[in-house]
Amino acid sequence: MFLKAKRSRAVAAGLAALAMLATACGGSSTSAGGDGTLVVYTGQSGDWQLNFNPFSPTALEGPGTIFEPLFFYNNIRDVEPRPRLGKAFTWNADGTQLDIELRDDAKWTDGQAFTADDVVFTLDMITKNAAMNGTGYKGAATAVDSTHVSIKFAEPSFMEGPQILGRIWMVPKHKWSGLATPATDVVKEPVGTGPFQLDEFKPQAFTLKANPTYYAGEPALKKVRYLALSGNQSGEAALKAGQIDWQTGPVPDIKNVEKNYPGYKAITIPMNQAALFTCSNAALGCQGPQTDVAVRKAIYHGINRTQVNQLAFENTASEISPGAALLERDSDQVSAKLKERTAPMQADEAKATALLEGAGYTKGGDGIYQKDGKPLALTLKVVAGWTDYITAVETMSQQLQKVGIKITPQQVSWNEWSDARGRGQYELLIDALHQGPAPDPFYNASYFYSTATTAKVGEIANPNFARVSDPAIDGALAALKGIDPKDDAKRQPHFDVIQTRIEELVPYIPILTAGTTSEYNAKKFTGWPTKDDLYAFPAVWARPEHSEIFLKLKPAS
The Solute-binding protein family domain covers which part of the protein (predicted)? Predict the structure, then answer.
């Protein structure tokens, strides 16, 4: 199989890259954290491209670490948000006004004070630049004084709170007001309020250093170094050699990390929903067979998820709902009106072929369906080096061959994959649906299924990459914004609409709920999240969750 054939070369390449990094970063020792530096690997395959614009889909880092939100929301546990740049907030009775009190001791790393003007500027900026508005924010903000902001909404907007407060990164007005196109401008020298700031940048690695003037005190963790390697196998090799301290991704024999990697521990949390993303909406410019819902449903039923879990994910993944709510965390809100509460774990080839034939496809002599003289053939993009996803893609392509669908996996760089995803210039790609700032299925739906967060093909969508635009979903999302989030009885009918429409449209073809696993150096650093103390979702690429973890970590004595 491909991965076995390439394994030795990939590992050798990864170790060679690490050897070069040791020299590039100014030392002969490659021991992780040897100087108190936390060395992390996010899965970056290929060189880093310098860009710290936190609103860019190709931003390499910044949200949470350099640029802060107003509050930190724990999206695993239902707990009160922790203040960051904000101190307190209140809603009026009908949810049309949000008043925020800010810190008075925060400064940008160039020494200027952080004020309410920066908050208003940031919020106004994203309303003028749709590609930056990943939360669908529609408020009108006013600075009452230097530490108070009032945001008014045209309609009740309770659900906007965690998104505005926890998922919008504050930027300095005195720096960003001069950017001509802030949605796409490259930020090379970031100025933020966060606990870290840029230390040095090289294409193979960049380093953040503790902010000595951080309002909460300089972090105990002094440096974080981000490596670029050649993929998961290189990451695993580096972990085995003790050359990285934290990565989120698969390793062989994942259940025995402590035995196989002395000094390291692992934690697995089911949060992100692995899916085949489809550019689904022909009205917005999507092209290809995947714009036909019958094809998307045939793929959905043609996947043997049990086999994918075994071969690609070491059985660490779990079932997934076709309505996109998390089965474990959101169990009370999973709609009873779904045709299937969970996606089938076994392929149903008869159902898949019946869907295709009902939509006018006929099978050719080569066993592949065709329509209007065109074979049912699709290209599926995957990031080179993401070995678990590569295995999943190859496994599914073989499975779908049996139902007359030809899938051609295409390994590309992360930058190419990310650009294609953002612009809708793909047929299929593999990725995961991330969760919102609070433990509520509303946010996942508002991100990936709202007309407000998508765009025409060629323009940047953020993050409705499938180009979903459905009046019923939009209406239900709008209604949920005006309902107190504690009123379950009033909310559920709208969740029923959203989930049943998602199941019907299947723009992101559900694979499995990924068991997101992180391996971390417990010998050299203390303060890591545990299942008993999940103060933040423990994934190195999760933003701003990773910044909360950085703030908790301390070098072990």
Answer: 80-452
What proportion of the chain, given as a percentage, has pLDDT over 70? 94
pLDDT tens column, 467-517: 999 999 999 999 998 888 889 999 999 999 999 999 999 999 999 998 888
How do residues 65-79 score in pLDDT, each as one tens digit?
Answer: 999 999 999 988 889
Output phi, psi for 172, to 5 deg: -75, 125
d(CA 514, CA 275): 10
> By C-alpha distance, which of 364, 463, 436, 429 is closest to 130?
463
Tell me how far apart the alpha carbons of residues 189 and 200 are, in angstroms, rounded to a whole number: 10
Nearest CA to 289 among 382, 381, 374, 411? 374
Q: CA torsion 544→550→552→557, rounded to 10°?
A: 170
CB 70 within 8 Å of CB 86: yes
The CA-to-CA distance between both ends of the chain, in Å, stands at 45
Q: How far apart are CA 519 and CA 10, in angstroms?
A: 20
Q: Residue for token digits 């107003």?
A: 70
The size of the chain, in residues, is: 557
DSSP codes of every residue in 289-329: GGGSHHHHHHHHHH--HHHHHHHHHTT--B---TT-S-TTT
163 is written with which tokens?
Answer: 């998104």
> Which residues is 362 bridged to in the sheet?
370
Residue 431, amino acid:
D
Could you tell me the pTM of the whole model? Answer: 0.75
Rounded Cα gap, residues 421 and 148, in angstroms: 38
Lowest mean pLDDT among 10-24, 241-255, 278-292, 296-310: 10-24
Range in 31-35, 41-45, 244-248 with the lowest mean pLDDT:
31-35
